[in-house]
Amino acid sequence: MEPETAAPADVPADVPVPAGRPVQTVGRRKQAIARVRLVPGSGNFRLNGKDLERYFPNKVHQQVIREPLSTVERAENFDVVATLSGGGPSGQAGALRMAIARALSTYDADDRPALKKAGMLSRDSRAKERKKYGLKKARKAPQYSKR
Predict the structure, then answer these.
(1) By CB count within 10 A, which of 2, 21, 34, 48 is most buried?
(2) What pTM was computed for the model?
(3) Nearest one of 8, 119, 115, 117 to 68, comparing CA atoms
(4) End-to-end distance of the chain based on CA atoms, in angstroms?
(5) Residue 18: what pLDDT?
(6) Cα dihedral 51, 53, 56, 61 sign
(7) Taking Cα atoms as reference points, which of 124, 146, 144, 147 lies closest to residue 135?
(8) CB count in 10 Å sphere of residue 10
(9) Contact 19, 7 (CB under 8 A)
(10) 87 Rama class: left (phi>0) / alpha (psi -120 to 50) / beta
């Protein structure tokens, strides 16, 4: 008899199938980095040891963070445990959104097209432009005086 350790024929060998296990991903935006563990659960968020409403009091940031879960209609299926560092609130919210979207697409490949169409899987590479010498900021010049 042949041992049954081989993977089923319908599942590709290179695709991980996390059946009930946590999925870990990283998201980045501006200077912010979000490390996320997506765990099957009831829709709770733990961000640096705090819940979502305490860490992000701004409702717009909360909506941005919940967007990937609501896009694939799994808001109540997963708990999100995240470590956020760097940047400000807006950058951290964007990084967290990207990390959650990546975790969802890793967990179930059928969700990837919807997340990709919504633009949640592509990194927003915009960053602050550096200050140039002779200028007050990146582009703001001192006031011109004719005489």
Answers:
(1) 34
(2) 0.79
(3) 115
(4) 97
(5) 53
(6) positive
(7) 144
(8) 5
(9) no
(10) left
Contact 97, 68 (CB under 8 A): yes
Phi/psi of residue 24, nearest 5 degrees: -110, 130
Give the other-Cβ count within 10 Å of 106's Cβ. Answer: 17
Q: Could you report the per-residue pLDDT of 62-72, keeping only the tens digit for each?
A: 999 999 999 99
Residues 6+ positions from 90 with CB-CB distance below 8 Å: 30, 61
The mean pLDDT of 16-36, rounded to a whole number, is: 83
In angstroms, the CA 121 to CA 113 distance is 10
Residue among 9, 80, 71 nearest 40 (CA): 80
Look-up of token digits 């964007």: 94
Per-residue three-class SS string for the chain: CCCCCCCCCCCCCCCCCCCCCCEEEEEEECCEEEEEEEEECCCCEEECCECHHHHCCCHHHHHHHHHHHHHCCCCCCEEEEEEEECCCHHHHHHHHHHHHHHHHHHHCHHHHHHHHHCCCCCCCCCCCCCCCCCCCCCCCCCCCCCC
